[in-house]
Specification:
With about 325 residues, the protein is α/β, with parallel strands linked by helices. It folds into two domains: about 280 residues, TIM Barrel, CATH 3.20.20; about 35 residues, no CATH class. Helices cover about 35% and strands about 15% of the residues. The chain has eleven helices and eleven strands. The strands form two sheets. Strands 1, 2, 3, 4, 5, 6, 7, 10 and 11 form a nine-stranded mixed beta sheet that branches. A two-stranded antiparallel ribbon has the order 8-9. Helix 1 links the parallel strand 1 and strand 2. Helix 5 crosses helix 6 and helix 9 runs parallel beside helix 10. The chain is globular and about 45 Å long.
Length: about 325
């Protein structure tokens, strides 16, 4: 098949960024925090090893503070088969109050002092458990803002992957990323603060199936959800335009390969897939209720990996590795 991408070195960078978090069977904070889903990591890592993929595991506090969980990730880290980063859930990261737990509060809605304290504690927990400070981050529920970026800068972080282009979270009092850039960039370009010129944003891979620009794009993104995402204009109805995420839980293998071809065809050199660790074990999220569901999820990953590795010249990189590559391109 003809390769449609336009890259100087013919390389497509594959990033797998996984939110490694506590069990959330009904997508709510549990009275008693458990981390049973970590039992599924070994099988997942075996699949990554088969393809030579180095994932980035972004850990919440309950994972970083659980000795059994740490014992799963530590050998993978020590053998240079993954990166360990951080993922902030305010409702499980000390100091915790009842309101954060009840509302599953977004980090971007926290008082700046509390946000800083939580990020310090999360970063410290990972450092204590793994002997290294994390440098990659994703905000829980994508609750990211300038205050978060400035605190990450102060704590020595190098990469964020919280931004979801073409998507607003205002319905849950979160940030609006509708018009954010799809390609990686320095965060000073978003926030106009030169002190963020070393902090790289690697957005989750999302795209429209038609390359709308200007007014047409703005009109589409502001349409009611019933019309837009999985609505009247989607493949399920009129088949005019869709929005696809590189998220194997909610999208088919065919949709994800289509998304990847679209992004690479438009000159993007990065494919950033994300999902949650509790989605790889039966009953620990709102998805995948049976072992058959889990088997289907793995089949989907294999189909996708087989496709992109055969179609493109793919280089798997962790978030930190990609950040170094990204900066190296510009020096």
């Amino acid at each position: 098949m003809e390769k449609r991408y336009k890259t100087p070195d013919n390389t497509v960078n594959l990033i797998i960024s996984i939110d490694v978090e506590e069990d959330m069977p009904d997508w709510k904070a549990q009275d008693q925090t458990t981390v049973r889903n970590i039992a599924g990591i070994s099988r997942l890592q075996d699949l990554f090893d088969e393809y030579g993929i180095k994932p980035t595991y972004l850990l919440t506090s309950p994972i970083a503070e659980d000795k059994d969980s740490v014992s799963v990730f530590l050998p993978i880290l020590k053998s240079n088969r993954c990166e360990i980063g951080s993922h902030l859930h305010p409702w499980t990261t000390p100091p915790v109050n009842a309101a954060e737990k009840d509302k599953l509060m977004l980090p971007s809605n926290l008082d700046e002092r509390i946000l800083r304290e939580k990020l310090i504690n999360l970063t410290g927990s990972i450092r204590d458990s793994f002997g290294m400070a994390p440098v990659s981050y994703r905000a829980g529920r994508f609750g990211f803002n300038k205050s978060s970026a400035l605190i990450l800068r102060d704590l020595g972080y190098m990469v964020d992957t919280s931004i979801t282009p073409l998507r607003s979270w205002e319905n849950i009092n979160g940030p609006n990323f509708l018009y954010d850039r799809i390609e990686p960039h320095f965060l000073n370009e978003k926030y106009g603060d030169d002190s963020l010129s070393e902090l790289v944003e690697v957005p989750v891979s999302i795209a429209l199936t038609k390359n709308l620009t200007g007014l047409l794009k703005r009109l589409y993104l502001t349409l009611p959800k019933v019309t837009r995402i999985r609505g009247l204009l989607s493949k399920d109805y009129l088949n005019i335009i869709d929005m696809i995420w590189l998220y194997p839980v909610l999208y088919t293998a065919e949709e994800m390969t289509r998304l990847s071809d679209i992004l690479v065809g438009r000159g993007n050199r990065v494919l950033n897939m994300f999902f949650h660790s509790n989605e790889i074990k039966v009953g620990e999220s709102i998805y995948h209720k049976t072992e058959r569901d889990i088997a289907g999820f793995y089949d989907k990953l294999k189909y996708y990996f087989d496709y992109i590795f055969s179609r493109y010249r793919v280089q798997s990189r962790t978030l930190k590795e990609y950040r170094n590559y990204f900066i190296g391109e510009r020096t």
